[in-house]
Amino acid sequence: MVVVFEAYANAYPAFRATSAVNLLQAQLRQAREVSIDQRRNVTVTFQGTSELVAVIVGINGASNTTLYDYFLPERLSYVLETGVPDVPAPDNYGNSYAVSYACPGNTLPCTITFQSDGSVLDGSGGSTNGGIFIGISGQTQTARAVKILSATGRIKAWSYNGSAWH
C-alpha cells in the first residue's frame, strides 16, 4: 500500500501540470477563435505569477469586454525550471523568461494580441513567436510549455517528463 501511495504522490504533480497546460492551451485557443469569429482584436495579459486575462477590444469607442479571468491551478505558476531546455525545433522560440513573448522589460504583466486574422502581436506590438512556461517551482517533471507561432496563431502544448519534451 505504501508503494502505491508513493507512486501516486510522485505522479500527481505531473498530472496536475498536464491538466493546467491543457486548460491554458484551451484558453488561448478560445481567445484566438473569438478574435476571428468577431473580427476583433482580443488581448491576453499574463499577470502576477499565475493569472491570465483575455479582453475583447471594443471598436469605434465601444467599451472592452472581458472574455475571461483565469488562474492556473494551485501551486502552478509561470516559471522556468533550472536545467530544463527549450522545446525542440521547430517550436524552440526561446526560453529566457517564463513568458517569452517580447514583453517590455521582459517582465509581467505581458500582453499579446490575437488579431482578426488569427495572427498574434507580441508584447511589444511586433510579430515575434513566443512561449509560456508553467510548472511547480523546483519540480522539473511538472515543466510544461505552450508555444504560439505569431504569423498564424498556431498554439501547441508541450510536456517535460524530467528528461525530454513531448
Short overview:
Helices cover 22% and strands 29% of the residues. With 166 residues, it is an alpha+beta fold.
What report would you give on this structure?
The strands form two sheets. The chain has a five-stranded antiparallel sheet. Strands 4, 5, 8, 9 and 10 form a five-stranded antiparallel sheet that branches. The chain has one helix at residues 2-37, and strands at residues 42-47, 51-56, 65-71, 77-78, 99-100, 110-114, 120-121, 130-135, 144-149, 154-159. Helix content is 22%, strand content 29%. The mean pLDDT is 93. With 166 residues, it is of the alpha+beta class. It has one helix and ten strands.
Topology:
Layout: H1 2-37, E1 42-47, E2 51-56, E3 65-71, E4 77-78, E5 99-100, E6 110-114, E7 120-121, E8 130-135, E9 144-149, E10 154-159
Characteristic terms for this protein:
globular; 166 residues; five-stranded antiparallel β-sheet; minor pseudopilin epsh fold; alpha+beta; 1 helix
Main CATH class: Alpha Beta
Please state the CA-atom Rg, rounded to the nearest Å. Answer: 16 Å
* Sheet/helix structural class: alpha+beta
Q: Biggest sheet, in brief? A: 5 strands, antiparallel
> Would you report the number of β strands?
10
SSE pattern: HEEEEEEEEEE
**Order of adjacent strands in the largest pleated sheet:** 3-2-1-6-7
CATH domain fold name: minor pseudopilin epsh fold
